[in-house]
Write a structure and sequence with these properties.
This protein is an alpha+beta fold. It folds into two domains: 123 residues, Rieske [2Fe-2S] iron-sulphur domain (Rieske Iron-sulfur Protein, 3-layer Sandwich), CATH 2.102.10; 239 residues, Naphthalene 1,2-dioxygenase Alpha Subunit, Chain A, domain 1. Helices cover 29% and strands 23% of the residues. The chain has nine helices and 17 strands. The longest helix has 27 residues. This is Rieske (2Fe-2S) domain-containing protein. One of its GO terms (molecular function) is 2 iron, 2 sulfur cluster binding. InterPro entries: Rieske_2Fe-2S, Rieske_2Fe-2S_sf, Ring_hydroxy_dOase_asu_C_dom, Rng_hydr_dOase-A. Keywords: 2Fe-2S, Iron, Iron-sulfur, Metal-binding, Oxidoreductase.
């Protein structure tokens, strides 16, 4: 049965045409979803949280990925730990979903007790011959990259995470995300497949028609365009914009702020792209008027004119600005349901109502995420329709979708599908 299912998935992979969206079954089928969890959320590096989710010793938060439950915590010495949320006695969950504060990890079933390092210290009525050292909680491979926590559940994590690490440590350093704080968090469940969520995020072909709030701070020309359809005036405007990008990028980098595009999108395991983007209008932040939402800037930032340091991976997207940052993490729940967890970060000492206005801070991306949820639901409903057939990606606005689909197919095949 497993071989037949794998063969069926292989047929779907083979059916994908270059430059086109995926066959419907790759978005809708339950066996494909299970394969996706195994390949992309167990065997690849994924972003699951932030250092500042657990700022103090004893702080813990649980993140569930498919059937796997993880504990992110800060141990007594202030070190980060990521542990499997599975008691070594009979497998009970140790902690419930969400945030908590603990001094020990105590199993609610039979009170097996673990230090915050994962070491088993108490196992009542098990006899003197029980070797506690053999029953520590299982650790998870993780990297904290500029304050973003990436985990890999495989025993052989992809080594090319080094490319992401090398690019982002310097880029994120001025923002000091490790010492920021989460000012607000939302969990939105989209009624669609996780790949549709990621595809929707990787293009802004749809933005001008669907995201009026975001378009205040996003530059229209960055959405992509067909140069043959431009009027002479619009073509001149586009050329001026590209000159401005070149000028700004050189100036930012001369001031010590890496800004040019860096990416691993195909022929790789760890998929990411980063670039410092120009912010439109007032040019300071992704807010309703494009001005900073917080008067206390992040980390060591002293400038509000450094644009949007953008980073995406295959289950996340991030925007780092002088005054605040937005971190979105995507977690598949089923073939047709996807959790989008968005966090708004400010300086750890920023005070709501004094240094920042929460509504101004969150308005744009609350609206954008709700709008995207509707678009993803429409896309998934269309993929379920018998009339669906893969359509062509725009060669001007959706080239990154083509690369994502190509990467997806290649990685599925690399893992035996």
């Amino acid at each position: 049965m497993l071989n037949r299912l794998s063969s069926d998935i292989s047929a779907l992979l083979e059916a994908r045409a270059d430059g086109h969206s995926l066959p419907a079954g790759l978005y809708t089928r339950e066996d494909v979803f299970e394969a996706d969890i195994d390949v992309f959320f167990h065997k690849h590096w994924i972003c699951v949280g932030l250092d500042c989710d657990v700022p103090e010793p004893g702080d813990a938060t649980v993140v569930d990925i498919g059937k796997t439950s993880l504990i992110l915590l800060r141990d007594d010495d202030g070190g980060l730990r990521v542990l499997h949320n599975v008691c070594r006695h009979r497998g009970s969950r140790l902690l419930d979903a969400g945030k908590t504060i603990v001094s020990k990890l105590v199993c609610p079933y039979h009170t097996w007790t673990y230090e915050l390092t994962g070491e088993l210290t108490y196992a009542p009525h098990m006899g003197k011959d029980l070797d506690k050292q053999c029953y520590s909680l299982k650790p998870v491979s993780f990297r904290s990259i500029g304050g973003l926590i990436y985990v890999c559940l495989s025993d052989n994590p992809p080594e090319d995470i080094a490319g992401l690490e090398q690019a982002m440590i310097e880029r994120l350093a001025p923002y000091d995300i490790r010492n920021a704080k989460v000012a607000h968090q939302t969990d939105v469940i989209e009624d669609g497949n996780w790949k549709l969520t990621m595809e929707n995020n990787r293009e802004c072909y749809h933005c001008s028609a669907n995201h009026p709030e975001l378009c205040v701070s996003f530059v229209d020309i960055d959405f992509g365009f067909d140069p043959e359809t431009l009027s002479p005036e619009d073509r001149e405007q586009a050329e001026e914009h590209f000159r401005l990008y070149d000028e700004r990028t050189k100036a930012w980098e001369a001031d010590g702020f890496p800004s040019s595009a860096v990416e691993q999108l195909v022929d790789c395991a760890t998929n990411f792209r980063s670039q410092r983007l120009i912010i439109a209008g007032a040019g300071e932040s992704q807010t309703p008027d494009a001005t900073a939402a917080s008067s206390k800037l992040l980390g060591q930032m002293t400038r509000k004119d450094l644009g949007d340091m953008h980073l995406w991976g295959h289950n996340s997207w991030n925007h780092f600005m002088g005054d605040h940052a937005i971190v979105a993490i995507v977690i598949p729940l089923s073939a047709d349901r996807t959790l989008v967890r968005t966090k708004w970060l400010v300086h750890k000492d920023a005070v709501e109502g004094k240094d920042y206005d929460l509504e101004k801070l969150t308005d744009v991306w609350i609206a954008t995420t709700d709008q995207d949820a509707e678009l993803v639901a429409r896309s998934h409903a269309g993929a379920l329709d018998p009339a669906y057939q893969p359509g062509p990606y725009s060669p001007f606005s959706e080239t990154n979708l083509d690369k994502f689909a190509t990467w997806y197919i290649d990685r599925m095949r690399a893992h035996g599908h």
